Amino acid sequence: MRKPGLIPLMVSIFTVDLGTSMTAVALPLLLIRDYGTTLAAGLTLAIRLVPSIAVGPIVGRLLARRDPRHIAMISSLLSALFAALIPVCGALWQVQLLTLGIGLTVMLAGPARLVLRPAVVSEGDELRGNGLLMAAQRVSTLSGPPLVGVIIAVGWPLWVAFLLEAATSLVAVVMMLRVPPLPPTADEEAVDSGDRRRFRTAYVTSTRALLRVVSDDAFIRGATLTSFSYLLAVTLGRMMLVVMGTRHYADVSGFYGWMLAAMGVGGLCGSLLIGRFRRISTGTLYIAVMLIEAVGWLSLPWLPGFPAAMAVMFTIGVMESSGYVLYYAEVQIRIPRSVMGYYYAALIPVGDACMFLGSAFGAWLAGASVPAAAMIVAGVMGIPMLLTLRWYYAPPGRIGESDAMREGTKSAMRGEGHDV
């Protein structure tokens, strides 16, 4: 049964990601037009990742002690302000400062919206509910770049795209008001500390929570560890597509855009269809989609032509979004609310660091040899999955038990003569 807040959260996610995908296209164009250097564009875009990588884990304590709706709404309001100010900047450092500010809002809003999923997705309906939320993300990602293209084609100034991002952020705030409140929980991970040590304690606490989760639940352990290698592999693969567009498909105008579009359409289909496979174990599905995607990336340099490449990228998109839906559903089932915020706050920065590495070395790797790059992408994605196969069939662990509960369980088992 669907909870009443699912549609508002879907719309909020759609509008936020729509604005973000528009800026991802408009910002490099603005930088190259006004400052004439692709290096400046690359550095300015990379600045968005810095807050998450550097201080992202501190968000866990906020999410455990505050209503995630409020965090998401405040972040969206600030993001709207920063985006609206970018077109009026007169110097590159001002754009970079505002981009850094947007990165801070993303650092807060991303985990907050992930933590809100249990508030709108019913127990037993995790696959379908998370599939719909993933579909909202995919539709927005597909819609943003073409909208920027329309703005340019009709002769409107580029700053319209930034104002539209500000407007979508405001819509996201309004829709978040219709999401059921998620009150603070008993913060089992909290450690009392003075003001001077509060920042460090929050950082360490999120890291400790991540380690606790992966040690207590085998499925989450495998999915967490392979998510890092997966993000590295996908980022390397996307850079490989850029190089392939200049070497193997130089006669295809906009090859990279076509590949991402095929992947996006596949992602939309995968997110809507994966919920129909409830009779198959999640572990089997998760292993299958990850390995099929790895084979898809491996095949790209040896395909006979552009239509085959489009078909493979569509399949890769189906597998990618299906894997995300399965992962988010299991997180919702296995990780309690009191720990979930800490988990995502520690997970996302490491994932961002992996994407940063993939962006930094992907073009160089593919430039040296596209076939070798494809084999590395497939290996980085597939080998960790093969090494962790048995973990995906493990039952839910004991993450939800406090230390006191665990000690009580151990004591009871000792009293009954069991080994612990």
Describe the structure in your own words.
This protein folds into two domains: 1-180, Growth Hormone, Chain: A, CATH 1.20.1250; 197-397, MFS general substrate transporter like domains (Growth Hormone, Chain: A). Helix 5 (68-85) runs antiparallel to helix 6, helix 11 runs antiparallel to helix 16 (370-387) and helix 15 runs antiparallel to helix 16. The protein is built from 17 helices and no strands. By secondary structure, the chain is mostly helical. It is globular, with a radius of gyration of 22 Å. The longest helix has 32 residues, at 337-368.
Largest sheet descriptor: none
Number of strands: 0
Identify the CATH architecture of the largest domain. Up-down Bundle
The dominant shape is: globular
| SS strand fraction | under 5%
CATH topology assignment of the largest domain: Growth Hormone, Chain: A
Write down the secondary-structure element order: HHHHHHHHHHHHHHHHH
* CA-atom Rg in angstroms: 22 Å
